[in-house]
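Students often ask why we bother encoding 3D structure as a string. The short answer is that it lets us treat folding as translation between two languages. Here is a chain of 336 residues written in the first language.
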Amino acid sequence: MSQTAGAPPAAPLYRRKRHPYGSRMDRPIRSLSALVAAFLVFCLGLASAAPAAGPSDPDPAPLRIVLTPDEPQTGDAVLVEVECRSGTSCPPDVRLSWSEQEIPLFPHPLRGPSFRAGLLAVPLSARPGEALLEASWTLSERRRGFRFPFRIRPGSFAEEALRVDPRHVRPSAKDLQRIRREREELERIYAAGAPGPLWEGGGFSVPVPGEVSGAFGTRRLFNGELVSRHNGVDFRAASGDPVAVAGSGVVRLGKELFYSGNAVIVDHGAGVFTSYSHLSRIEVTPGQRVARNEILGRVGATGRATGPHLHWGVKLNGVSVNPIVFLEATARLAGK
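And here it is in the second language, the structure alphabet:
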């Protein structure tokens, strides 16, 4: 039907009455939308409250790991502190490893039962760059694990040339047989250390008061032809000066060796050994329990040495590390 110009528009045949809050059809739709929105907000809240899982493990890691130093150099000893964040104590089978090196863990001497500590050795030969510390434990009868990333920095080491007895540069066939036997004996000793720490709460200290005369890691050229790395530190001292045990432990060796001369090795447990070389006299015996600062021998110049001094070495998990950095790392366990 056409509409005449100027006439009012015709009223519709049917007008829906508006409900003040929308139609009855609108109300269930709006209620459903509100429920969906509330559910999404709840899910987002759960996601933000949950800790983020590591990229290599779908489950959130219940372990917190702190390294000191956090970016070690090649040749460093590293303190590893582990906090178990689930429950009141650490799982008894927590294991840490890096580059085929098992890191013995023991109760943290300054923290509660939910903390563990261990010592990691970074070899001189380690490749600088990114590294991954492997952690594993058992939870609900399943083996769990994750990887903790850290960075290794290249160390800076000096070079020096030394003159020694030619016999210690070009050993005879007989000497080579002796060197091989001694190496095998040392390998057995370092592979059979006490599982837990034997040192007291006081930690470790330097075995003689003299200044360092030979740094760890130095590249040494003997008699112009033999190149080696210095796997300890040398302390300047006079012949006959007393040499003290760096920390409590058990003597595992006390004898004359081809290169080290009169030497003592002490097992401190948890993968830690200290060695004392070129002594003029040994005053302890294998199997003897010794305390920190107890005298074990006297400074000398036996073995491959250029003069009286003490060569002090630290083996950690079978790896030679910088004894000065080792002192710094273990000082934290003694509260220093």
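Translate back mentally: The first strand starts at residue 63 and ends at 68. Keep this in mind for the problem set.
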